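Q: Fold this one first, please.
A: Sequence and structure below.
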Amino acid sequence: MSQYLHVTPLPPTGAAVGRARAVLREVLLEATPGDLYDAELALAEIAGNAVRHACPPYVLRMVMVGGHPVWCEVVDGRPAGLATILDGLSPADAPGCDELFADGGRGLLLVRELSDGCCGAYALRSGRAKAVGFALPVAVGAHGPVRLPPGRFGWLAHFAVMS
């Protein structure tokens, strides 16, 4: 089964969010009939956080397995803040009542909920960037759900959501 990484550089401005959503829309419409709205909203939150709290370059990356997108992430040029992001993606970090009505701070909660907890963040090997991402719905075709093979992207196996 073929595996590859779909990489799209994003503009170093707020336009990164719209561009990321447009690319995701194109890829999901071609590869899966999954829930586009939830994926777009989760991606908009991640891309918006990158623009708001990090620095360029911004890159959208989607792991494709057998022609189907299974993982979507935004890479930014600021490796700092990883612990805060991981806390925000953690189920133990559920907001209290006051936080639910705050002006901001619920983006990572949305990502976690929209991806059924199949999300994460990690530092890139270079040490100069981080990635924040989530699992995409996996298409079920005539041969059943796409299974992630071991190897290059095998670490994603525990993130894949089989529909």
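Q: Good. Now the second chain.
A: Here it is, same layout.
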Amino acid sequence: MTLPTYEKRRILICDDEAGILDAYHRIFADLVADTADDANSDYDALSADLFGDGPATEAAVIDEIVTCRQGEEAVEAVRAAKASGQPFGVVFLDVRMPPGIDGVEAARQIRTIEPIINIVIVTGYSDHRPTEIAGKVGTVDRLFYLVKPFDADEVRQMATTLVNRWTSDSRIASELAAQVEALEALNEALRVSEASAHQAARRDPLTDLLNRTGLEEQFDRAARQARANNAGVSLLYLDLDRFKLVNDTHGHGIGDQLIREVAGRLSTAVMDDGFVARLGGDEFAIVCETAKLDTVLARILATADGPFVTGPHHLPVSFSIGYSGGGDDADLQEYMRQADVALYVAKDAGRGIARAFDPYLDQIFLRDQMLAQDLKEAIDENRLYLNYQPLMCIDGKRVTGVEALLRWDHDVHGVISPEIFVAIAEKNGLMGELGDWVLRRAFEDARAWPDVITSINLSVLQFSKPDFAETVLALARDMGAIAGKIEFEITETAMTNDIAAFLVQVEILREAGFRFALDDFGSGYASIGYLSRLNFHKLKIDRSFVSALSTKPDSDRMIRSIVSLGAAMGLTITAEGVEDVIQHDILKTVGCDQLQGFLFHKPCSRSEMEEILNREGMPRPHAA
């Protein structure tokens, strides 16, 4: 508590004799501010007996003198003065004040009320020794004695000294209290700051969920509680499918809003059955008791049923989940590793998949990580290559185009299927480098056959880069490629992720002269509305429809429908995967424009492709 610097210098005089009280007034008259000296008191004689000759002139040091005649009155006066904020600095107490308490008892009680007050015990008797009084009153450095009769100058000097002392002490106490209060405020601010820093160090600033540090602390508590309950604890890793596409398409502001919305839904889904943490980016972790895992997992997956609304955008979101735990030894680092492996495999299986960890998944994960490292080296060291497969006119006798097919002959594992290593590139952030390598090499090779169109497969992840179109244009300029002789093949399922953002990139490349083909048509769910918006040049019928021609009598109906649709939209129709004469004859009958398959040519090297073109290449200006 802060002690104020008091403005009034007050003293209290307690004596049961009125004449004594008046004598005090006279002796202190010239010490009291704004008080005239009354030298003609009715008690001059008594004053002379007690205090001797008249007072000497002193500077005013007292603002107010209060008198009382009983010990109880003195105690109450001190209490009231302190309560009013104007306490006494000095009190003069006569020892004997019948019939109430004596001066010593009054002094003891006053000391409990006002510890810093200066108390003067006045006595004309020897029945109270100073040591006895000090033992009862305490604080001996603020306890003084006057023995009657005493000298007026002595009393005046004592009063002056004690009032000045009290004024100085109160000022020092006030300043000290202010410093203490400031230090306490500083300590409190530091405590709040430390608490805030402690909280911030354990919370994700975007979502206010636990961060990795907070997860570790909470997991330890959850594991201890689970062991106490004879239960297990499980850890789930959750990742938003294609979140990078949201950021690249709509910007990081919308991405952050989506993360906050997902965080809220996850917290609602988990409820009191566990807790949620954000590890960074679009990665979340959930911890719960193993007995509640199925319930929590079902609620989490259900949160993705409806679109996530972020401003004007309604974004469909799915989760890939990997989870681990349930054993007796709840080791967070091992659980995190296992959940991460399970998540990796879940994402490899598609979108909206939850996968539990199993020891054999370690082998898959390790294999893929080693292949990813080897693939990165193969890209950097130019150890990949392209094969080419001809696209034939409908009679199968003339080459009207070529498709570039990426190949990788691994030093240890031999030729690895593109389905495997392209997926590894997509999962490990290598698609940009891999795609640029393919474009650069295909553009270079296409200069060897400028009269036919070269088709190049593109991944949707390449289109997720806002500057992808500019990258393609720059590579084409560097490699001397002719835009009108390059055709990009995009799978039907890849485009349905964000058609608007995709079309922005496509339009830039179309205006530059590049052609586009919709690959694997019929395997996905692209609508006619999509096709009209895409404004592509070609449809490639999925090979599954072509394969069925040899075994299912009515299988040509779907192909006839696709051909009719393509003709109505002015598109070239290509059938891929043609392997026998039966398929060829039917495709000629239904009206396809272009064929591709082992019946005509298998994929081959660039030099072999040049020989085929020299032998069979009879391009027509209107051919696709």
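Q: Anything worth noting on the second one?
A: The longest strand covers residues 399-410.
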